[in-house]
Amino acid sequence: MSYDALRHFADSWGLVFMGATYAVLVGWHFLPRGRRLSRDAAMMIFKNDETEADNG
Question: Which pTM does this prediction carry?
Fold first, then answer.
């Protein structure tokens, strides 16, 4: 495979692959399970604060 053929393949199908990957990763967060996991991940930094407030 020549450089020009490889570059043409990457320019056309590489862009399609990256676009589809982006759409899947962004769309994942709008699913019910993904939304719950995203909320849990966002609130994870406050987890120690809640346990210290309960203990102290």
Answer: 0.52
